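Minutes, project check-in

Agenda point 3 was the complex the collaborators sent over. CS summarized: two entities, 223 residues total, and the question is how they sit relative to each other. Sequences were read into the notes so everyone works from the same version.
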Amino acid sequence: GNSVTQMEGPVTLSEEAFLTINCTYTATGYPSLFWYVQYPGEGLQLLLKATKADDKGSNKGFEATYRKETTSFHLEKGSVQVSDSAVYFCALSRRDDKIIFGKGTRLHILP
Amino acid sequence: NAGVTQTPKFQVLKTGQSMTLQCAQDMNHEYMSWYRQDPGMGLRLIHYSVGAGITDQGEVPNGYNVSRSTTEDFPLRLLSAAPSQTSVYFCASSYQGNSPLHFGNGTRLTVT
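CS then shared the predicted structure for the full assembly.
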């Protein structure tokens, strides 16, 4: 079946550091891939998405590229801020099927 | 446009009680789903629906029922609450299965 594996947290970085959160997937066909973010006390919200191979999703300085050859969708940001502290979820979905989430990675940015 | 509305925000139940968590969306989304979020467990899918009249089980369906009589509403029923159902519950919807999800603000449920 379809599945998503993302790196265990928590991840602690200093402000302005480079961020990578790894995400790999297993799926049949060509799923859409997503990153969601959950700030403390809130529900999840979409951060970025990609719908086909080699697509790059980007938002708020975050980027992720849909790599079909490595079945990966790693999240990156060049210079993190304290306000990026949150839990990040990788997810995949196919039309008319359930959406699968990874377990989430908690990110903590130190000032 | 209210998005996804969940009620109540907080609820305390005694073991064995039943209740319904409400979820409504006003975006004419076909896909709706319920998740529970527990510390260290991420999001686990309880039930989902790809359209009115159609529901299916997720990875943790036991102890929960759903129905989808209209496009807008997708209530989650706890039949006989157990302490293991203490969690934060999120309802989410999307235009279709591979579209971005819109989440409600969650219901924090405690079963004593």
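Noted in discussion: The longest strand of chain A covers residues 86-93.
Follow-up: revisit at the next meeting once the mutant set is ready.
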